[in-house]
Amino acid sequence: MKVLVIGGGGREHAICWKLAQSPKVKELYCAPGNAGIAEIARCVDIGVMDFEKMTEFAKKEAFDLVVVGPDDPLAAGLVDALEAAGLRTFGPRKSAAILEGSKAFSKDLMKKYGIPTAAYETFDTPEAALEYLETAPVPVVLKADGLALGKGVLICNTREEAREGVKTLMLDKQFGSAGDRIVVEEFMTGREVSVLSFVDGKTIRIMTSAQDHKRAKDGDQGLNTGGMGTFSPSPFYTPEVDQFCREHIYQPTVDAMAAEGREFKGIIFFGLMLTADGPKVLEYNARFGDPETQVVLPRMKNDIVDVFEACVDGTLDQVELDFEDNAAVCVVLASAGYPEHYEKGYRIEGLEKFKDQDGYYVFHAGSKFDAEGNIVTNGGRVLGVTAKGKDLEEARANAYKAAEWVEFGNKYMRGDIGKAIDELIG
Fold first, then answer.
1. Mind telling me which PANTHER family this protein's record contains (predicted)?
2. Which of the ends of the chain has fewer CB neighbours closer than 10 A, N or C?
3. What DSSP line would sit under 336-351, residue for residue?
4. DSSP label at 416?
């Protein structure tokens, strides 16, 4: 098969890495890709939002399968454009990607179909939001309705912070038009867990659990980021939690989308909060999570092509997912200053140390080649260093060991990815 992956981050590198292992894939392309992806796929310089050029290229090259990675092109309808050009495409159509594209839509869907989530209100004007916040219980959570690179969520501990949050989202437009409408949500407490799933419109297959670390600094301090590291599986995701979620969250979400005439094919990422009242949905994503993908796919035994095709063809009921009985931890190596201001263009050293190391992986998120052909930093999150181990404790030690193999100017990482699990394990 000839396969095209659309995107250029750590998620897409992990997807390309998994596709490259399939005996069914003979030619692998990625648009636009990055310096790491270039080692395993032919990178093509086409932006993910350039639908016309992307569709034209994909049609001309006659790809057997196209996989769309990022949220923006999914929400804007790239899958629809590719399918209209006759290309078999993995990912939700625009009508289904709204599950992530609009927080208000997803909250309304959960309310309508009785899917457990936090109580909420939706506001189109800052005046109405501010009036509501005068009497709303605090802490409170403010969410930009639209896509905001995983950063449009503000946890406000006081009324003053909540007023500032409304200003940030709706008046200062920190996340652009994503903040034209906001969702004000009750603050839930508990353990967060991420669960990725494959969906073919009617059947859902659950992958192994994971847990992300969103904040920039140790101890979950600092600003929200796209993710500073992950581990899998989550020790808090018990068989009892899994059973509850399958009955009350996972399948009901797929059925609700179908009932709304928005058949969902692709990935649903469930962001869950394990509250004292049971699991509840924090958010949905309509694609692989980043960096969750970098700990989930290395543990997956299946040929990913089989799963992608089953989702496209509506035959996922014939597929059983199989995961290794071990653990994986990913530590993100970022540019100091991320997610605000940071410098790019630093040469990355030590990548060759991953070449023949079984169970150690480096996924590129923000890298490129400079004029001399060196790999240099090209983003806030630069690399995801992933390692496996027999359990979470060993995987964590391995990941931090491997993180030291790599050097670049202004390298920054959290030192406590998965640290809470050490305490749990004792």
1. PHOSPHORIBOSYLAMINE--GLYCINE LIGASE (PTHR43472), PHOSPHORIBOSYLAMINE--GLYCINE LIGASE, CHLOROPLASTIC (PTHR43472:SF1)
2. C
3. TTTTS-----PBPB-G
4. -
At 94, list the tokens.
Answer: 């625009």
Q: Label the pairing between strands 65-68 and 89-90.
A: parallel
Q: What is the mean pLDDT of the chain?
A: 95
Give the model's confidence band at 292: pLDDT under 50 very low, under 70 low, under 90 confident, else very high.
very high
- DSSP H/E element including 127: helix 126-133
pLDDT confidence tier of residue 196, bands split at 50, 70 and 90: very high
Q: At the topology level of CATH, where does 119-186 sit?
A: Dna Ligase; domain 1 (3.30.1490)
How far is it, in rounded angstroms, from Cα 384 to Cα 290? 9
Tell which CATH classification among 3.30.450.20, 3.40.50.20, 3.40.50.2300, 3.30.2350.10 matches the domain 2-93.
3.40.50.20
**3-class DSSP state for residue 85?**
coil
The helix (H) or strand (E) run that includes residue 28 is strand 27-32
Residue recorded with tokens 């949500």: 185
Delimit the domains of the chain by residue range: 2-93, 119-186, 191-318, 327-425
With 60 as the cut, is the pLDDT of residue 426 above it? no
Q: How far apart are CA 226 and CA 407, in angstroms?
A: 21
- Taken as a whole, the chain contains a residue count of 426
In this prediction, residue 419 carries a pLDDT of 83
166-174's contacts with Cβ under 8 Å and 24+ in sequence apart are: 166/126, 166/129, 166/130, 166/133, 166/142, 167/126, 169/142, 169/144, 170/125, 170/126, 170/129, 171/126
Give, for 98, the enclosing helix (H) or strand (E). helix 94-101
327-425 belongs to which homologous superfamily? Phosphoribosylglycinamide synthetase, C-terminal domain (3.90.600.10)
Predicted pLDDT at 253: 98
Q: What is the pLDDT of residue 148?
A: 82
Q: Is the pLDDT of residue 422 over 60?
A: no
